[in-house]
Each structure stands twice: as C-alpha cells, then as structure tokens.
Amino acid sequence: MTPDVMRKTGLAMLAAVAILGAAQVAALPSRADAQTAPDGGTARSRTVSATGIGQIPGDTAEQAGGALMMSIEERSNGSDVQGAVKTVQDRLAKLRAALNAAGIPDASIHVQGFNVGPQYGYPYPMPMPMPVEPDGGTGSGAVPPSGATAPARPISPPEPTGYVVNAQLMADTTGPEQLAAAMRVAIENGATNVNSFIKGGPGNPTPPNPDALGPAIRQATEQAKVMAQASAEASGVALGDIDSIAVLAPTPSYGGGPGPIPTVTWQVQVRVTYNLQ
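The chain above was modelled as a monomer; its predicted structure follows.
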C-alpha cells in the first residue's frame, strides 16, 4: 500500500470514529436537560435560608451553687518537716469536720493541692569585706588608689532554715447562704486566702438542662419557618420542602434580672434552608 493510500485510509477511519462517537453522545440521556434554563444556561436551584433563635431560661446567682477555695499553711523551723506535714493534716481534718457541721458533705470537699518546700537563709551576720593591705595584697609595696577595697570573703551557699507546708481545699456549696456559712467556718478554723465564686456566673456558666433543649430547638425551627415563609411571599414565590437544617450548640447570654443579681440564659440557633417553588 502506497503512503498516499495509507494516509487517505487513516483519515477515513478517524472520520468514522468521530461520527460514531457523536452518535453515541447524542443517544445518551442528558441529565443537564433538566437543569438547563430557558436561555440555554445552567439553572441554579432556588432556596431561601432563615435562622431562628430559641431561648432557654437560666439560673440567677441566687439559684446557682458556689465554691469556696481556702488554704492551710504551716512553717517549721529547722529540719522537722514531718512535724509540719502532720500539723497541716490535723488542721485539714479539723476544718473538714467543721465544714461537715455546717452542712457540707465529705463528697463536696476536695483537696486541691498539698505542697512542701524548703526555706533558705544566709548566715548572720553577713561576711564583711576583708581589710585592704597597703599594697593591695600584691606584695609589691605599692600604695593602692584612694577608696580601693579588696574582694569580700566568700559567702557560703544558703542552707535550709525550715520548711513551708501548704494545702488548698475546695468546698462546693448549694448557694450563697451555705457559701457564707462555710467561709465563716473556714476563717474561724485558721484558713487563709479564702476566696469564693458562684457557679453559673459570667465566668463559669452552668450548661442548660438537656430537657430544655427540645422546646428551644422547636421554637427556633418554627421561628425560622415563619421568617422564610414571609421572605418567600414578599418575593412572589412559594415555599417548598426543606433542603437542609443546621442546629448550633447552645451559647450563654448574660443580662440583668429583676434585681441586682445577673441572670444567665441560653440561646439555640437553628438554620433552615427551604427550596422555592
């Protein structure tokens, strides 16, 4: 077969393949036909999204529990660290018993820390500078400049002079009244660094009751539907079925209550996307 014949044959085969491929493509059902706009472009699905907010009532500071933080400290002179540890343990037991008598159970009292550390000190009196020799201690006989001093005698490293034992205790209370009583008991029994905080306040919000989540989510979903329906009617279209729903985690919201005590409420957001007809 001559080169010219081979070239013509090859072109004929390519043309046949192209025609066959075009016929197969035309025979396939086109999914894009259903998505094609009247002007020949690709139609986009029409949706509208709205976000509703559901409210969950929270606690006021009067209803929230509290916690009391306190410390017990003992210092020992010399090397009797075991005696200091025993003293702190005895004082902790006495403080725990007093808190129990104030209505706080053992399960609500926790040791947060127990620390033992040495105290260091230097000998007294401190070493004084050595006197200056006429020649500055060089043996040369030269007179040192006016005001010159020799190095001080070497100072030995500090040695432990005693030990400090410190324990931190936390007591959970049911409310401000019990918290105040526990604070009085702690101070009367030698506790130091006594501090308190209210659980449910701005720094430590108490999570909402799970039983309250359902009504709040339904409230937010219904609110989103009302807003989407109003938006669709204002746009001259009809609301279709739901395309997607997203429920966000509850978030705290702080505000003033009927009195000076702040309240903590929770909000649940639900975002609903509807198809439009």
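The first helix runs from residue 3 to 27.
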